[in-house]
Amino acid sequence: MKLLVVGASYRTAPVATLEQLAVPPADLTRTLDRLVAQPYVAEAVLVSTCNRVEVYAAVTGFHGGLGDICAVLAEQAGAPPASLATHLYVHYDAAAVDHVFRVASGLDSMVVGEAQILGQLRDAYHSASGADSAGRLLHELMQQALRVGKRAHAETNIDRAGQSVVTAALDLAAGLLDGDLTGRPAMVVGAGAMGSLGVATLSRLGAGPLTVTNRGAERAVRLAESYGATAVPMAELVDALATVDVVVAATAATEAVLSRDVVTRALARRDAERGPLVLLDLAVPRDVEEGVAELPGVEVIDIDRMAAILADGPAATDAAEVARIVAGEVEVFLSWLRGADVAPTVAALRGRADDVVTAELRRLAQRRPDLSDDQRAEVARTVHRVVQRLLHQPTVRVRQLAAEPGGDQYAALLRELFDLEVPQTSPVDTVPDVVEAETVLPADTTPPTGGAR
To answer: Which phi and psi (to 5°) does residue 410 adopt?
Structure first.
């Protein structure tokens, strides 16, 4: 079994494409079921956030797995696979492990080092576990990825650069409002994880009074009460917009909540001397209708705009330290993976030895019926003991060698020498460790040549 990552992020796709690919929470289990129902996909974890949609999969073949995943993503997007090709990236085997660990540690985030991605990965893992789409390989990968992410934040200063996406967006908003949000009336649209983070961050920055609205009124009330804010019904959205300077929009709605009509009516009731109405759209699909940015007196900060502004990233030393941690952890995981790969071959070898011993003991019983039960039992124990001693050192050694780079050669040699039949769970063709990021490979494409593991 091999690891494959196929996805799109703010680095490779505009918000419009991420909107197409985004999987609402209500559709997550169904999409995971579709993935693992594909011929080459044995396990799957799906990460769908405001700035990335990625599938982590255990596959039985590179070409088939890639084709299967691209087909499901294209179906989800309601678009032909060719239209997504320029926006998807592919990571295979060792490169897949490296990518997942970099995501978990915040190195691949829009705001490098932000810790929110850890919670999003944890949620994706729990969803896959609940849908029974994560098996032994992805269980191990996700558990280690979460551990690596925690380690990166605990052992480095990446947190000082790793503000959340919400904090980064509000910093940009403050720059449009005289540099300070203190005392600025603000509203959060949405009461989910991102909305809760928005209310908490606005409260910490001294913004206020704070208003919360959500399609589910009870959830808005609970969130508002936690921070001394006011909950308003979604039906009063226009009136509420007219009284604030900053809006954090982070719902899970499939259509824009802040339409051009809604914002236009709010602007008509708003004092023009108050300065711009700043709308932070942190949702995928977008909460702010595209035409709203063209309205006078409105500033829209969305994922696309944040990606351009935050391109410089954090202090290089912090990122480099985390990168060193990731590199070491990737090699540890790959060593475990190589050892796990040889286990079926070792089991097959021991099984072959047991079969040979059983056949010989049966033949002995036929040729020497005069032997007593005790004598036959003693012969059986002796033969089994001899076989186990003969196999012990070679099997221990092959496990050690298999954990080293290129270790799969030893398992292959054992299979060849002893003519072992081991179920094939990895691609038949030779595929390299690394498939370059930001490159999509159609299902009928041969991966670039390189060192195979």
So the answer is: -70, -40
Edge-to-edge strand ranges of the sheet holding 277-281: 230-231, 210-213, 186-189, 246-249, 277-281, 298-301
pTM above threshold 0.90: no
In 292-344, beta strands by DSSP E: 298-301
Say whether 50 is catalytic.
Answer: yes
Angle between helices 373-402 and 316-367 (to 10 degrees): 160
CA torsion 258-262-263-268 (nearest 10°) is: -170
260-318 tens-digit pLDDT: 999 999 999 998 788 899 999 988 888 999 899 999 999 999 888 877 766 655 556 77
At 135 the pLDDT is 93
For residues 240-261, average pLDDT:
92
- Please check whether residue 152 is in contact with residue 176, taking contact to mean a CB–CB distance below 8 angstroms: no
Q: What amino acid occupies position 261? A: D
- Render 89-156 in DSSP notation, one character per residue: EEEETHHHHHHHHHHHHTTTSSSTT-SHHHHHHHHHHHHHHHTT---HHHHHHHHHHHHHHHHHHHHS
How much is the pLDDT for 292? 95
CA dist 322 and 318 (Å) reads 6
Tell me which residue of 141, 127, 119 sits closest to 58, measured CA to CA: 141
Is-contact 226 246, C-beta < 8 A?
Answer: no
In the sheet that holds 41-49, the strands lie side by side as 41-49, 52-59, 2-9, 89-92
What confidence tens digit (pLDDT) does each residue in 147-171 have?
A: 999 999 999 888 765 566 788 889 8
Q: What is the DSSP string of 57-89?
A: EEES-HHHHHHHHHHHHHHHHTS-HHHHGGG-E
Coil, helix or strand at residue 282: coil
- Compute the distance between CA of residue 171 and CA of residue 335 in angstroms, rounded to an integer: 43
Q: Catalytic: which of 28, 50, 244, 258?
A: 50
- Residue 433's contacts (CB-CB under 8 Å, 6 or more residues apart) are 92, 93, 94, 95, 450, 451, 452, 453
Tell me how far apart the alpha carbons of residues 127 and 315 are, in angstroms, rounded to a whole number: 34
CA dist 116 and 432 (Å) reads: 32
The gap from C-alpha 230 to its chain's centroid, in whole angstroms, comes to: 35
| DSSP letter (8 states) at residue 432 | B
Whether the pLDDT of residue 445 is over 60: the answer is no
How many other β-carbons are positioned within 10 Å of the β-carbon of residue 379? 16
